Amino acid sequence: MGYRGAYFVNGEIHVNTYGTPEGKPLTSGHQDFKPSWSKTGNMLVFFRRLKDDPVVTNWKTQIHIINVEGTGLHPLTNGTHTDFNQTWTRDGTNTPIWNRKNPTTGSFYVMKSKVGTKPGQEVALTDKRYHTWAYSCLIDGRILVQCAHSQQGWGYYLMTLNPSGEPHFERIECPMALKGILDRISISPSETRICFEYQTGHRYKDTGRTLYIADFDANEPSITNAKAFANEERANRWFAYPRWSKDEKMIVYHASPSLYIYNVEDGSTIKVSTQEGADYRYPHMEAAPK
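Structure (tokenized):
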């Protein structure tokens, strides 16, 4: 198949060709999660768990950058916050962004930093007073977010940053959002399609979700013509983290504890994790930030 990516195996991050045995891990000795591969520059951004807790949103984590060959590891945050689900902008700046918990309210807001900077130099992109969760970015700089906006209400938006004031939020029309939760959303490299997890109802849970592919219109903006491609029967298993290949022919995802690749063109699915009994999660494709 020949598709390369980054993913978690038993707490370590690997860069590897899917479907082949892993070699030496990129990181070890820690619990490192959710690598995202930059559009250019061959870098990964991931978070390291420094403090565990039965409640995931009580973890303390630290955002890190590393080159895909294993050099240049450095932290962007100091490890005293709950920082999750990092990715990269697609606008040519290779800006890492992520979601940070507001410990007072329990909601999240969006942060950014720069490769090579030190902890404490990160800045907030959204207001801490209302929940905003960043998923995926557009070439024009907009960010697809879930937001409980103080004026516009809860929903999915394309957010345009405003250096001199509040961001601008464009509501995304999506009938599915009225009946349930879209999560771990990834926009395709051409920005014409989208993949995501979906559950009916708005009481959050990880297992039993269905993975979908849909049309995406960044101008409307809208999400339409959704089609299930994994766990349509809603089996009580963790199907999660669908991510596009750069050529948009494949979507990699995990169905815990294994990794799979869905062929968008012919509808086939193959298992690409190789170690029986290992815990594979959070796959990502080469040079295709979520």
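The chain has two domains: 38-171, 177-289. The domain at 38-171 is CATH 2.120.10.30 (Neuraminidase).
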